[in-house]
Amino acid sequence: MATRGKGNSKAKASWEAREGAVRVRAVLEKAEDCEACGVWMPFAALEVFGTRARVPVRGTLNGFAFRSSLSPMGGRHILPVNRQMREGAGVQAGDAVEVVLERDDGPRTVTLPPDL
After folding, report:
1. Beta strand pairing call for 64-73 and 29-30
2. CA pair distance 102, 50, nearest whole angstrom
3. Element (H, E) at 75
4. Average pLDDT in the chain
5. What residues does 97 pair with on adjacent strands?
6. How far apart are CA 13 and CA 2, in angstroms?
7. Please, which contacts does 88-94 make with residues 24 or more away whose CB atoms are closer than 8 Å?
8. Greater pLDDT, 77 or 109
9. Which pLDDT belongs to residue 12?
């Protein structure tokens, strides 16, 4: 079990890698100055995903499916958790969560509305 080096929580986070996926148990943390929430990764992305840069991922947050990216911030990586993810997973800042991640190298396309 690894302890967090970032964020406000003194809680411990744990993780395990198995069969191409990473399972993280941690606390959903809220930024002090806004409504943004995220989960700090308790592992080195370089060791797990082979990069220190942004990592596209897909997975589940307490069973709610999502596609997102792990973002490097202050020498660590964080999974941003938007309102849709929080509501879908039934969680709020301060809750213990389980995140299952795998690298998502699939294409990411956005369909623009005709008026743009």
Report:
1. unpaired
2. 13
3. none
4. 91
5. 26
6. 6
7. 88/61, 88/64, 89/61, 89/62, 89/63, 89/64, 90/62, 90/64, 91/28, 91/61, 91/62, 92/28, 93/28, 93/29, 93/30, 93/37, 94/9, 94/27, 94/28, 94/29, 94/30
8. 77
9. 83
DSSP string, 16-56: EEETTEEEEEEE-EE-TTSS-EEEE-SS-HHHHHS-SS-EE
Burial label, 105 (beta-carbon count in 10 A; 0-12, 13-18, 19+) = exposed
Contacts of 45 (CB under 8 A, 6+ apart): 51, 52, 55, 70, 72, 77
Q: Which two three-digit tokens encode residue 38?
A: 């995220």
Within 10 Å of residue 15's Cβ, how many Cβ atoms? 17
> pTM for this structure?
0.85
d(CA 22, CA 102): 6
Distance of CA 51 to the CA centre of its chain: 16
